[in-house]
Structures are given as C-alpha cells and as structure tokens.
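hey can u run this one w/ zinc ion bound, need the structure tokens asap thx
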Amino acid sequence: MPRLPTAALALAALALAVVALPVESQRLPPGPVTQPSRSHSIGYGNRGRLLHSVALEPTDLVRVRNATHAHGTQELVDLIHWASREVERRYPGGMLVVGDLSRTRGGRLRPHRSHRAGRDVDISFYLKDAAGEPATDLNRFVRLRANGKGGTRDGRVFEWDDERNWALVSALMGQDRVPVQYLMCVRPFKERLLEEGRRQHAPAWLMRRVEEAVGPRRTRGSRRSLSYGTHDSHFHMRVYCAGDDRPRCKDKPPFWDWIDYPEVEEPPAPPRRQRRRSRRSRRRR
Ligand SMILES: [Zn+2]
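ok here u go:
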C-alpha cells in the first residue's frame, strides 16, 4: 500500500473536519436513555395522579428545593438529570435549581393547578451573579424584571444567563425521547432565548419548536399567563405521557407536528364553570 505524505493526510483530515462541522452543529443530542419504568402517570396533568413515582435526587448539577414535592415519572426525572448534564457539557459550572414536581402519589399540590401527575416541573432560570459568574448557591427562584435582572432581599443581584438558558432549552426541545409539550416563561425571556438561538445559528427546525412550544401560554379561565407574572423566575415544563403509560395517562392538546403521537383523541370538554375572577385563576401553574 503506497504511503501518503503526512502533509496530504493532514490536509485531507482538515478538509473533512470543515465539511463535517456545519452538519454536526445541526445535530443535537438525542435525549436521555430512560431507565425501565415502573412509574405510571394517570389522568391529566391537572386532574391526575402518580403510581410508583421516582424521586428526583440532588446531584452536583441539580439542586432540589423540596424533596417531598420532587416526585415524577421515571422519564421526567431522567430528562431533568440529562438536561443538567447537557448544559454542564457545554458551559461547565452552573447549577440547575428545581422546584416542585409532584407529591409521591401525585394529586393536588398547592399552590399549583397542575403538577398532579408527575409530568410537570418548575425549573429555575439559570442565573449569573453580579460578577458574571454562574449562580450556584441559590436555593430559591429569583424573579427577574423584563430586562433580565433581579435580586434577593439580602441585596444580591442576579441576571439571566443567555448561554446556559439556551443550552437548557435547546437540549430539552431538541430531543424526542421524552417529548416536551411546553416550557412556559414570560415573553421577554422567550425573546432572549430566540435571540441567543439565532446568534448561535441554531437550525430552523429547532427555532420553530422553541417559537411554538416555549413561552407564555393562554390557559382556560386565565389570561394571566399572557402578561408579565408567574413565570418570571422559572420555566414550567410539561412532558407528554410516556408511551407505556397510555391510555390511562391522558394528554390534552397541543400535539405539535414534530411529536410522534398515535391516535390523538380530543378529550371531552369539561363542563363550563361559572366564569368568575377568583383567586383560583391567579394560582400558579
Ligand atoms: Zn409549575
């Protein structure tokens, strides 16, 4: 076999790398390999319950605010840990602060309307401190103003972390193993996410997913989520029912066109209650 000169080999390798680079940047990690699951989400996210739940355990990358409210399906718990590792892989040094998932057996969890069937989770925005370093010692959510800045009562100031929040959202929305139905946050942060995605030349299909499934949502009986409010400190994430939890596990629309979801049935419309602007409609999701 004739020996190629080293320089020619190096040149060929370089050319290959240059060609491969744009393709590689369009590809995203495929998502968590979920453990065999005994967990079972039953019913709807806002009317359901949870069997054989899995506790979200804290790690070096995940802080759990309240262990008694940190139970979910195996798939959701695996997704959270996987996403925290994805962010760390791209931007080391951050901390994912997780609020409520569900109770051990699901059911009502105040003050939320949903969080009942192990498929909802509140995830703090990634924040930077005044020195521009990732905030890693927070055990709470910090509300941010529309300009992305906020603070705690002891005078510490924090700011939205563009790179880590985009890394989180693009990891979650770019995978199909545990499909995400939506990620709620107030509009200014959706705009910042899209801006960061454009800056990083994210692929068009991913930008469309973020455009459609991330941000404020109008919900029945409440227009509040359209305005600035609840989701100014954290994302509220809902994942679809796992395949082996259906049909007892129930999803409501929307069913995005990138989701491979068999036999979608529109759930019967619940009886219309008296319209009243009560405290109920202002509860957190
Ligand atoms: Zn929530």
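The chain has a mean pLDDT of 86. anyway lmk if its weird
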